[in-house]
Design goal:
Elements (H helix, E strand, L loop, with lengths): L1 E5 L3 H4 L6 E10 L2 E7 L3 E5 L6 H15 L4 H4 L19 E10 L5 E10 L3 E9 L2 E7 L7 E7 L6 E7 L4 H8 L5 H18 L1 E3 L4 H4 L3 E2 L12 H11 L1 H14 L6 E6 L7 E7 L6 E2 L5 H14 L20 E5 L8 H16 L3 E7 L11 E5 L3
Parallel strand pairs: 4-17, 4-18, 11-16, 16-17
Antiparallel strand pairs: 1-18, 2-3, 2-5, 5-6, 6-7, 7-8, 8-9, 9-10, 12-14, 13-14, 14-15
Helix pairs in contact: 2-5, 4-5, 8-9, 9-10
């Protein structure tokens, strides 16, 4: 594995008030062993099929869901598939995997490392939260017969460490605000580091537009874009009237990525008589509108990804940290198959749009592509080359 930076987003990197993941570690996960991947505001994992691009994004998403408080079984539906290939069980027939990340922000770099047992029972068997060489939280499985781990966190008062059991099916870092009083400097450091980690992890939108689902009319609802962008028409119905400036940027982007003239992108009531449903169309400016169902897969994926990049947590189906102001959070988009079905013009236009949006600091993108050589002329892109 090699990583190269094709430019920098200095403005984003110089903003410590927005916590962000700067490194993903897969110590032992699927095809990865002892791997550490640097992440910038816009990062592309590149490599052939089987090189581990999708598993890297899957590990990132898992950390994000655990940081949001999800139970282990909800995050890892097939945990055995995450165990490194050819990993042998120990004397107790246990096998597992290890993942982690580093988040930079106001508290400086904060590291989180998690060890998960996949067999014979799914459970977190170890977790460590550290910063500046100091261990702020450490957990370990002491008694396999109990569904708990023994946790110790930094106190810094008359007693340097506080010990207590934590459940073995949730991330301890996400539970610390409920367990730490914050009365001493040490406790406040623990809380601040845990908050920085959780804020960076929670605001993640996993996006994989599905053109087949985007071609049909959809019912009106909350107007929050789903991961597969199935309800793109519903979201366009909402966003076109809410923010004219961003909608104009979307129209410009679609004009650059779709064949033929594009005057507007909008949603309209379905013409088939289905009450309460809308369909997305292109206004060509010269007569009948073109339903998005008539566009190619590449055009639809391009349009959907452009919409994701130009909107925010209020429109995407994400669960950001509600107690933290939006100005102090960064949305991270995970896009597996970022370049799937796109032609050369579309993928270059999309990555340039992503670079511009990431440079502003409120959004980051981690994508997976088969080859990233086409991004060599775009500043602000960090490419992680995975070798099979």
């Amino acid at each position: 594995m090699t990583a190269s930076s094709l430019g920098t987003c200095e403005e984003t990197e110089a903003r410590p008030d927005r916590p962000s993941v700067t490194e993903l570690r897969l110590s032992a996960f699927a095809a990865h062993r002892r791997a550490a991947f640097p992440l910038g505001p816009l990062s592309l994992f590149a490599g052939p099929s089987g090189s581990g691009k999708s598993s890297a994004l899957r590990a990132y998403e898992a950390l994000a869901r655990l940081g949001g408080g999800a139970e282990l079984g909800e995050v890892f539906r097939d945990p055995v598939a995450c165990v490194p290939q050819r990993a042998r069980p120990d004397a107790q027939r246990r096998r597992g995997f290890r993942i982690g990340c580093t988040v930079d922000g106001p508290e400086g770099p904060v590291r989180l490392d998690v060890a998960v047992q996949a067999e014979p029972e799914l459970r977190i068997v170890g977790e460590r939260l550290t910063t500046g060489g100091r261990t702020l939280l450490e957990t370990a499985l002491r008694d396999p017969s109990r569904r708990a781990v023994q946790a110790a966190w930094h106190t810094g008062g008359s007693s340097p460490v506080t010990r207590a059991p934590l459940p073995d099916d949730r991330l301890g870092t996400a539970l610390l605000p409920l367990r730490v009083a914050g009365k001493t400097d040490g406790q406040r450091q623990v809380l601040a580091a845990a908050e920085q980690m959780v804020v960076a992890l929670r605001s993640v939108f996993t996006c994989d537009p599905q053109p087949r689902s985007m071609r049909t009319a959809v019912p009106l609802g909350a107007g929050r874009l789903l991961s597969g962008c199935d309800n793109l028409a519903e979201v366009l119905w909402r966003t076109r009237s809410e923010c004219g400036r961003r909608h104009a940027l979307l129209v410009d982007a679609v004009r650059a990525g779709c064949v033929g003239p594009v005057h507007d992108v909008l949603a309209e009531r379905s013409a088939d008589g289905m009450a309460g449903t809308v369909r997305a169309v292109l206004d060509r400016g010269d007569g009948p509108r073109t339903p998005l169902g008539l566009l190619g897969d590449g055009e639809l994926r391009y349009l959907a990804l452009a919409l994701v990049l130009l909107t925010g947590p209020g429109v995407l189906e994400v669960d950001p940290a509600g107690e933290v102001p939006a100005a102090l959070q960064t949305l991270t988009v995970l896009a597996d198959g970022f370049d799937r079905d796109l032609d050369a013009r579309q993928r270059e236009g999309l990555v340039r749009l992503a670079a511009r949006m990431c440079e502003r600091g409120h959004i980051r993108l981690v994508g997976a592509v088969s080859d990233a050589s086409w991004a060599a002329g775009v500043g602000g892109v960090t490419v992680v080359d995975l070798e099979p």
